[in-house]
Amino acid sequence: MSTGFSSSSSRFADYFVICGLDTESGLEPDELSALCQYIQATKFRDVARGQLAGAEEGENFEQSPLRRTFKSKVLAHYPDNVEWNPFDQDAVGMLCMPKGLSFRTQTDIRGPQFHSFIITREDGSRTYGFALTFFEEVTSKQICSAMQTLYHMHNAEQYDILHTPPTPRSPEDTRSTPQQLLAAPSLSRLQRFNSYDISRDTLYVSKCICLITPMGFAHACRRVLEQLHQAVTSPQPPPLPLESYVYNVLYEVPLPPAGRSLKFLGVYGPVVCQRPSTAELPLFDFPLQEVFELLGVENVLQLFTCALLEIQILLYSQHYQRLMTVAESITALMFPFQWQHVYVPILPASLLHFLDAPVPYLMGLHSNGQDDRTKLELPQEANLCFVDIDNHFIELPEDLPQFPNKLEFIQEISEVLLAFGISSEANPQCSDGQSKLRGFRSGDMASDKRNGNLAGSPLNSYLLRENQTIARLQALVKRTGVSLEKLDVKEDTSTNKDSKVQCDEEELKKHQLNIHVREVFANRFTQMFSDYEVFVIQPSQDKEAWFSNRDQMQNFDKASFLSDQPEPYLPFLSRFLETQMFASFIDSKILCHDDEDKEHTLRVFDSRVDKIRMLNVRTPTLRTSMYQKCTNIDEAEKAIEMRLYKIDHTALHPHLLDMKIGQGRYEPGFFPRLQSDVLSSGPTSNKWAKRSAPAQWRRKDRQKQHTEHLYLDNDQREKYIQEARNLGTTLRQPKLSDLSPSVIAQTNWKFVEGLLKECRNKTKRMLVEKMGREAVELGHGEVSITGVEENTLIASLCDLLERIWSHGLQVKQGKSALWSHLLHYQESKEKRDATPAGLSPPGIIHDTERRKSDAGCAMPPLKVSLIQDMRHIQNISEIKTDVGKARAWVRLSMEKKLLSRHLKQLLSDHELTKKLYKRYAFLRCDDEKEQFLYHLLSFNAVDYFCFTNVFTTIMIPYHVVIIPSKKLGGSMFTANPWVCVSGELAETGVLQVPKNTLEITFECQNLGKLTTVQMGHDNSGLYAKWLVECVMVRNGITGHTYKFPCGRWLGKGVDDGSLERILVGELATNTTETEDRMCRTPPMQQSPGMMRRFVTISPNSKPKLNTGQIQEGVGEAINGIVKHFHKPEKERGSLTLLLCGEYGLVWALEQVFQHGFKSPRLFKNVFIWDFLEKAQVYFESTEQSQMTQDENWQMRVRHFCHFMRAINSTPRNIGKDGKFQMLVCLGARDHLLHHWIALLAECPITAQMYEDMALLKDHSLVNSLIRVLQTLQEFNITLEASLVKGIGI
Q: 3-state DSSP call for residue 1162?
């Protein structure tokens, strides 16, 4: 609809086509579609009779001959060819009669059926077809006797099952439901369906007449075809020969130019069509009413969301026209975006293998009205949206995000529908396609103002006064004497001769409803993307260079755009911004600098966005999720009504052609082949030459038409846009012409290449997002990645894997092809493992290979096992579906950095792959498969927590090992140790550790990323002193191992007398990676930079740093905290690590207080805490002695003493350094640290306890320290519970 139209075509229709039975070639079975039907039929028969499949091997065509499909042919098309739209015989033949020929007898229902179809060319431009199928009597004796013979054969075969007659296939066009047919007595049923007697019955065969047109004027074409059919079937011959009417519609009726309406004459009455102007929404002529009646608003919106996220969509109905109406409606409602992938609203029966396509598609599948959904075998359903139109229901893929403001949106659409008397629920009564809107008149629109749908008097509104076209139309309307303020059209136009509307009431209603609904949908996007232009990244290089690097370029600043959006929009928007349709939309924006060369949809969209901006000038658009209703419905509706009240142009009437006498007379009841000599070319005489539209139109509208046909102007731009479009898409529509195996193979090869390319782009995009490329300035992506975005990218990777795994499947089992393959592998592996030990096949060696880890021998690494990871997933009771299990398994493998390795192992079982996949499948193309695994390998460069962060409620086994120092053997240690492990999500509580083994395994709910371990002992026994090197904790599912360094004593009278310590840990990396810190991307803490060079701490020696180094240390620690708060909330690492970890704030302040500290005796350590306690005593005494100090000073002193007392009176056995750590954390939390430093620097105790050169005695250094600490004031620091346990402040 929206892409391009053949610009050279200025005619209403390009071809008139007749399809049907070719009596010369006789009855040829339509093999492919017959085979599909046969497969369905046998399944249906077996179910119906409760027999096992294959119990009765009938002939392939065990259906009765009347129900079989035979090949239809294009019998004639006029003219032979037009250069701007070459005639595609195969495609037209297939789509005019997608199921081939059907036969009926006089007992069947044989009403004419209308349907439309679409042919998409390689370049994405489209041609429309409108077909009317009807039945004609078969006159050929050969055909009748052939049918009789087929029946004799069939009845002989069927004789043995006469008493259990097969359930009948209801004819495609009958309206009767299977239940009614089954209710008929079985004998008459047999006679009706299984008999054709040449002497008694009349045989009818289907025939189809069709118009191929450049634009989709569905209503007009339907009327033309119905009138032509009527001319043949009515008792009176038509006024002129049929050729005159066909000639007229082919050569003398022009396309109406943009913004104009056109009237021309059919055989029995006028036909009106109108085309929107370049400032309106693009042409769309299918009834949206029908879509809402069939599916209901809720379902339509869900389907719309699937289409926007480029999920595979399969429509299913027994009416071709319904398939087309739903497909065209959904793609039309996407304005300004355009569906970029395979688009086949009617999939011919012979193309069913195309459902295997591993790409996003929107296809329509014809049902025979009898099989229900469960009988339909679809190659892939992991990410499929299945729409059963006739039964008003829709199956959605798992975890589909909600469309923003979904409820308000549904409310607004429902109000529009109600104003037209349509229910917002699916309406089962509308199976007749069109439900009539008789009771509603335009006059009722006035009363509708109360519903808030229409503004007061719209024509006086400011926006309309600005609009010149509307002003012109207004003047025009005044001349025609219609008052727009109060539209009052009489109800029955047929009796009311002076009525102004030039088309029937029904048609006007359809246009009004369509534009109302489309405006409401378009308004959602103008609101959502009102400031999108700000985020478009204009390329710095010239277009040629931009094109050659298009794959790698980011054309839109997604992170900034998303950070502006309300939280509830993010799940949908973050996925939508990744789609091909969004990328193409932005590409066309980049390529069009000025309004002149903008493509039609983009120009209309931009002008609407500008309007919204103009209205919001006073209050800049604050991003809220406030719902803004659509306000420009009236304007759009008036434009349509104006065109229909006054027709701009009437085409030349049909007239007699230059035909020989006797030509053009035909037998009534039969649609003839027409005289090709008169129809083969258009008028040549000067009078009509070039007269496709009046001259004044041509001048005025050349510009307009030019802009609308922009896509096919063969200039440089066209090439660019086309290339940009084809980047992500390989195919728009299957080749309908030649269905030889080689073509099918070629199609599959295109898919394989496409999948590989997609894999390359996805892995690259995910890495760029994760790593924060140095190459950001090259337009390569943004530095940060939000949790939502990471989930989006991983979900789209899972979707890609599902599509790869379902390409070329032999037999489908379950909804997830990947999980099904894994289960097969698991089964065969378990069988093989059951073999006696000596005979174990060599394949098992892979599994026992262990993963090295720098945890040393203290914690043997987990075995790498694909099966074990599957079992973990199978044990998670929260995951109920196969698709969910496959996704969880992918997430787990990503987190363990084993995805590529696991998949390689899975695919190394060649026997299994051969058994499950056809030869052409992606997984059996060795080179592509290797490259694919190689791309996945690149994920190992970054740390994902995509499993831990998503499955937050599952139970996980943890293994804890305490490693005592090797120097002083802990073997004499007599007390009972305990630990308590905390993570970002939860903490364990106190766990006793057996003192002989010092390790413990326990299971608890997912703790998230681990942050701290509290450990201590009960001080019992003779020797309760214990030097601990570190504690190791491992997650038993993801294999993540955390190391919590300690290096201190726990015990009374040793070190600082602490019986418990709080340890801060970080993820231990695998030694397989280099020791270089930088290769682990999202660093668990900011890189310590300079500090590493100064310090090598052995547990006991205190490092000596100079003041410069100390200042730098404090600066880096504060810097880390500031950076932490500048990240979006979802991406922040552990704050505890920045406060108490290696080189954190506590460490930095420790260096400050230790600098120049006098150590009194040789063997006694003095701790900072001792100094602070003395200072506290001093402050308390000065407070008592009422020494006059200002209010501020007293306030600070009171705080300081209060905190000191609280920490000293805690029941916990933390030592002096632990208390200092607690004080620093609380001071940072309550923004008091800089006050305390100032107090202590002035305190006389400092003079006693510090050397003269100490940092605390240097005023300028203390002042700069205070300034640095003040930067923490703007942050709201929340402390982890484990840091402040037992303190009630």
A: coil
Are β-strands 113-120 and 103-105 bridged in parallel, bridged antiparallel, or unpaired?
A: unpaired
Would you list the DSSP string of 577-616?
Answer: TTSHHHHHHHHHHHH--SGGG--HHHHHHHHHHHHHHHHT
* Cis previous bond, 238, omega within 30: no
Amino acid, single-letter form, for residue 198: I
Q: What is the largest CA-CA distance in the chain?
A: 133
Looking at residue 423, its pLDDT comes to: 83
Query: Nearest 5 degrees, angle CA 1237-CA 1127-CA 1117?
Result: 30
DSSP 1175-1233: HHHHHHHHHHTT----HHHHHHHHHHHHHHHHHHT-SS-B-HHHHHHHHHHHHHHTT-H
- According to the model, what pLDDT value does residue 572 have? 92
DSSP for 120-139, written as a single string: E-TTS-EEEEEEEEEEEE--
- pLDDT over threshold 60, residue 489: no
Residue 368 has pLDDT above 70, yes or no: yes
Q: What 3 state SS string does 1087-1146 have?
A: CCCCHHHHCCCCCCCCCCCCHHHHHHHHHHHHHHHHHHHHCCHHHCCCHHHHHHCCCCHH
Q: Give 35 or 1173, the one with higher predicted confidence.
A: 1173
Q: How many other C-beta atoms lie within 10 A of the C-beta of residue 1273?
A: 10
Residue 1231, Ramachandran bin (φ over 0: left; ψ between -120 and 50: alpha; else beta) = left
Are 276 and 635 spatial neighbours (Cβ–Cβ below 8 Å)? no
Peptide bond into 654 cis (omega under 30): no
| The token pair that represents 343 in the structure block | 């688009």
What is the per-residue pLDDT for 858? 63
Phi, psi of 379 (to 5 degrees): -60, -35
Residue written as token pair 């995000």: 401
Mean pLDDT value of segment 1183-1199? 78
Q: Indicate the length of the chain as a whole number.
A: 1289
Predicted model pTM: 0.70
Beta carbons within 8 Å of 316's beta carbon, 6+ residues apart: 364, 365, 367, 373, 376, 386, 387, 388, 389, 390
DSSP H helical segments within 806-851, as ranges?
Answer: 817-833, 845-848
Q: Which of 309-323, 422-436, 1270-1284 has the lowest mean pLDDT?
A: 422-436
Encoding tokens for residue 885? Answer: 């299990």
Distances (CA, A) of 890 to 367, 796, 797, 802: 35, 11, 9, 11
Query: 909 near 823, Cβ under 8 Å?
Result: no
Strand 270-274 with 977-983, pairing:
unpaired
DSSP state of 403: P
Task: Give 492's strand partners.
Answer: none
Beta-bridge mates of residue 77: 17
Structural contact between residues 1140 and 1146, judged by C-beta atoms closer than 8 angstroms: yes
Task: Judge whether 204 and 103 are in contact, CB under 8 Å.
Answer: yes
Task: For residue range 99-122, list pLDDT tens digits in order.
Answer: 888 888 888 777 899 999 998 877
Angle, in degrees to the nearest 10, between helices 882-895 and 866-874: 130
Q: What are phi and psi of 909, to 5 degrees?
A: -85, 80
How far apart, in whole angstroms, are the C-alpha atoms of residue 603 and residue 589? Answer: 10
- Give the closest residue to 1208 by CA, choosing from 1287, 1099, 1094: 1287
Q: Fill in the DSSP letter of residue 399.
A: S
Residue 711 has pLDDT above 70, yes or no: no
Res 1184 pLDDT > 90? no
> Taking phi first (over 0 means left), then psi (-120 to 50 degrees means alpha), and beta for anything else, what does residue 569 get?
alpha
Separation in Å, CA 232 to CA 222, 240, 670, 675: 16, 12, 6, 16
Mean pLDDT of all residues in 942-965:
87
